[in-house]
From TrEMBL:
Family matches, as InterPro entries: ExbD
Protein's organism: SAR92 clade bacterium H455
Protein name: Biopolymer transporter ExbD
Chain segments annotated as transmembrane: 20-38
Topology term for the membrane: Single-pass membrane protein; Single-pass type II membrane protein
Length: 135
């Protein structure tokens, strides 16, 4: 009799996992379906084709701003603030009207710096703004 009682107690103490697995699978399907409809916002960038030939010397003919990895902005070897970009572009554009603005940025710098510099350059009257990356 003792053996019959143990088997009966073991059968009664077993937990049925089927309803819990059903709920987990339904939640999994719900999260997969809702996650597929999330649209990431961003900028579409059309990259120019790469070439092995060195770029032409742009220091003398263009207005070049350099952005470091820590988002520090330099112009002609001196560190400047983003708010000073417009004045520098206006001064250089008066000397060289055909000059273009080139932002030479480190690959790990923030895109925000390029946007701020290009906005300041456009306010100064130069609409030809290019982005290049440092190696």
């Amino acid at each position: 009799m003792a053996l019959g009682r143990r088997r009966k107690e073991e059968d009664e103490s077993a937990i049925d996992m089927t309803p819990m697995l059903d709920v987990v699978f339904i939640m999994l399907i719900f999260f997969i379906v809702t996650a597929s409809f999330v649209n990431e916002s961003g900028l579409d960038v059309n990259r120019p084709p790469t070439s092995d030939e060195p770029p032409p010397e742009t220091e003398n003919t263009n207005i070049v701003f350099r952005v470091s990895e820590s988002n520090e902005l330099t112009f002609e070897g001196r560190r400047i603030d983003v708010r000073a970009v417009r004045a520098n572009v206006e001064r250089m554009h008066a000397e060289k009207p055909e000059a273009k603005v080139i932002v030479s940025a480190h690959p790990k710098s923030k895109t925000e710096m390029f946007v701020l510099i290009s906005d300041q350059a456009r306010e100064a009257g130069v609409y030809d703004v290019s982005l290049s990356t440092d190696e």
